[in-house]
Amino acid sequence: MSDADPPGPGRPGEEDTAGRPPSLLALPTYLAGHVARIGHDRLVADIAAYGLRLPHFATLTALADFGPLPQHALADHLGFNRSHLVGYLDTVEERGLVGRTRDPADRRRQLVALTAEGRRLQRRLLKVAERAQEEFLRELSATERETLAALLRRIVAAGDRRTARTDD
Predict the structure, then answer these.
(1) Which tens digits make up the pLDDT trace of 103-118?
(2) Residue ranges of the alpha helices (H) in the chain?
(3) N or C end: fewer C-beta atoms under 10 angstroms in the chain?
């Protein structure tokens, strides 16, 4: 695309973008950030209907996927600050969604596990999140959605590798 051929309606695969600056629309980071806000706002609202925030849902989902984990490992899996995780865990523990026990392998650590109620709510919230994704991505075909998710996972994996190298 040349300077004389700016993005905009009428080009194959491009929609009207409400007069946004073409130079910004050419930046994937701008697009990704804006798209993330659109999807994030919907998901946050849907999760809030259950009296929880997105980090609570992420915590429950990580425990559903990985099983019981030490608190520090849970924070690392989610990319959360460890001290922030404690507050999220306090909230979901008060609601009876998780339990914390001493790790028998290392009594200094806390293991976190879903309760039966936590498992039930996590499954319900996952369905809520999936419906939000359907709405959010309704403009894309199933193949386009799979491609988008695969590309985003590649970028996340590359970021994780960079972070791991800087942590060493």
Answers:
(1) 888 888 889 999 999 9
(2) 22-25, 28-48, 54-66, 71-78, 82-94, 116-136, 142-167
(3) C
